[in-house]
Write a structure and sequence with these properties.
This protein is 34% helix and 25% strand. With 348 residues, it is of the alpha/beta class. It folds into 2 domains: 115 residues, 2-Layer Sandwich (Enolase-like, domain 1), CATH 3.30.390; 221 residues, TIM Barrel. The strands form 4 sheets. Strands 4-5-6-7-8-9-10-11 form an 8-stranded parallel barrel, surrounded by 5 helices. Strands 3-2-1-16 form a 4-stranded antiparallel beta sheet. A two-stranded antiparallel ribbon has the order 12-15. It starts with a strand and ends with a strand.
Length: 348
């Protein structure tokens, strides 16, 4: 009998409006995926910020295409996920949702957490981050008070008040600082000024320039010793291979690359190339962030702070204490549904 696949549309809402150089938003549209096999249920997440090409309606249509193929088991579904026609670059969110739910089922079926199932054997001591969106200086203290005690702070830059925000954060908090420009900078001089503002507290910088601004990125990379991580510029393993002269770090995200299998492959290849690894998210719930956290042993930096930024998280999973991630002691992903989600069966 084919697997039972269902979905639930849901809008994740931020505790406060979240501003980056992409703009301001109050939440993120998501599709939660549920797969049931032989009495075991697994969950996956497709969270799609508005700047992505993939949209919720397209995810639902692709789920219908999957069900029309009638995969009879989780292994059959996983083979289908490697169909590059059905799951091309524009369908990585959907692929991730199905892969996460599938690996959740498999882990629960054999009573193993996902990191054991996918054999994460490297155990780095990664730095955890929580994010400060673009925030007026006078509101920073209140925002900092709400966030958990992470290993470092990610500060969104790329706006007129970026330097003032960095200086205020340094006065208010003693943690190391990671700068994320979200493609919002236009010159090497601007980037270097912000890097110098962070001073000895600097952990690194993420995606300073637009994806197509290779000239500025190459020049910056040649002038500084700080690690610059590619985010929008590195979507998959192919782009990772071609980024060596542009970036010395990569931000890997499940929604970008299509699932834990591909995220792990990217992390392994990055290590072989001498590129630092950061695990990021698209502001997913505790489900998506806990799923990615199973790869934390292969990362230098872990930026999975969605659970602390969202006010209506329908799952509970990992925690953070004194800057360290605490994983749930459960099989599979380990995230537990705590809210009523309106799942509808997918009909071919």
């Amino acid at each position: 009998m084919p697997l039972r696949i269902s979905y639930a549309p849901f809008r994740l809402l931020f505790k406060h409006p979240f501003e980056t150089s992409h703009g301001v938003r109050d939440g993120t549209d998501s599709i939660f995926v549920r797969i049931e096999e032989s009495g075991v249920t697994g969950y996956g997440e497709v969270t799609l910020p508005p700047y992505l090409k993939e949209k919720p309606a397209q995810v639902v249509e692709r789920l219908k295409e999957v069900v029309a193929r009638s995969p009879a088991s989780i292994p059959a579904l996983l083979r289908l996920l490697d169909d590059n026609v059905l799951f091309g670059p524009e369908a990585m969110g959907c692929r991730n949702g199905l892969h996460t739910a599938s690996i959740d089922v498999l882990g629960k079926a054999v009573n193993k957490p996902v990191h054991q199932l996918i054999e994460v054997n490297i155990l780095k001591s990664s730095v955890t981050l929580v994010t400060l969106g673009i925030t007026p200086v006078e509101d920073l203290q209140a925002k900092l008070t709400e966030l958990p005690r992470s290993g470092g702070l990610k500060v969104k830059v790329g706006h007129a008040g970026s330097k003032a925000m960095i200086m205020a954060v340094k006065q208010l908090d003693a943690r190391p600082i990671f700068l994320d420009a979200n493609q919002g900078l236009s010159s090497v001089e601007q980037a270097m000024d912000l890097l110098e503002s962070a001073g000895s507290r600097l952990l690194g910088m993420e995606q300073p320039f637009p994806v197509n601004d290779i000239v500025n990125q190459r020049e910056l990379q040649g002038k500084i010793k700080a690690c610059v991580y590619g985010d929008e510029s590195i979507q998959d393993e192919f782009e990772l291979e071609h980024s060596l002269k542009l970036f010395n770090g990569v931000n890997i995200k499940l929604i970008k690359c299509g699932g834990l299998d591909r995220a792990k492959a990217m992390a392994v290849r990055a290590g072989e190339l001498g590129i630092k690894v950061m695990l990021g998210s698209m502001s997913e719930s505790s489900l998506g962030c806990t799923a990615m956290a199973h790869l934390a042993g292969q990362a230098d930096i872990v930026d999975l702070d969605g659970p602390w930024l969202i006010k209506n998280d329908p799952f509970e999973g990992m925690d953070m204490r004194n800057g360290k991630l605490i994983m749930p002691d459960k099989p599979g992903i380990g995230a537990v549904l705590k809210a009523e989600l309106d799942f509808s069966p997918i009909c071919a």
